[in-house]
Automatic annotation (TrEMBL):
This is WGR domain-containing protein. It comes from the Bacteria. It comes from Arthrobacter mangrovi.
Length: 186
């Protein structure tokens, strides 16, 4: 699947996004846009050939550039970590199900709201860490709380931390507050 996503900050400070992709399985070209953190609007074009899709993606990228939209490089985005406390040190079969369900829920929720991407997951002793890359850390934290609650994942075991783009190692707990101890990945 070919995919493009661009962002623009409006004069009032609002961050908006546009994205387009070609789904070969459905011969479908999709354009999606909206305000970061809010459900986006989508327009689909069906029965698009792979050759035509390449031209449509090029035209989309050119129009976005003309309108002042640009990609946000990963180094300019925040790291946001959703962390679940686990009963076992290495992760059980139940914990692997939690990892899969949480990763899927976050990926889908973030995609339709321009909130970022799930970069990776990892098990640490008694913890599951889900690493996200986000153009707006505060909106991503709020989005994580909504989507994980809606997915009916154990909200009482959830901790969320964020780090600014310039210092990704400086994760600071954002949920729950106040933090009872320093945030730790391991």
């Amino acid at each position: 699947m070919n995919f493009l996503r661009f962002y623009k900050r409006l004069d009032d400070g609002t961050l908006v996004f546009r994205e387009a992709w070609f789904d070969e399985d459905y011969a479908q070209f999709v354009v999606n846009h909206g305000t970061v953190g809010h459900q986006s609007s989508t327009k689909e074009t069906r029965d698009v050939s792979a050759d035509a899709a390449g031209g449509l993606l090029d035209a989309f990228a050119q129009q976005c550039a003309e309108d002042g939209y640009a990609e946000i490089p990963p180094e300019e985005q925040s790291t946001v970590v959703a962390q679940y406390a686990l009963k076992t040190a290495g992760g059980s079969e139940r914990d692997r199900y939690l990892e899969d369900k949480a990763r899927r829920a976050i990926t889908e929720f973030f995609a339709w709201r321009g909130l970022g991407t799930v970069e990776r997951t990892e098990f640490a002793p008694h913890k599951l860490n889900i690493f996200c890359l986000a153009p707006d850390a505060a909106k991503a934290v709020a989005g994580l709380k909504v989507c994980l609650r809606e997915a009916k994942l154990d909200f009482t075991k959830l901790t969320i931390a964020a780090a600014p783009p310039q210092d990704r190692a400086a994760l600071k707990q954002k949920h729950p507050l106040p933090a009872k101890a320093p945030f730790s990945l391991g």
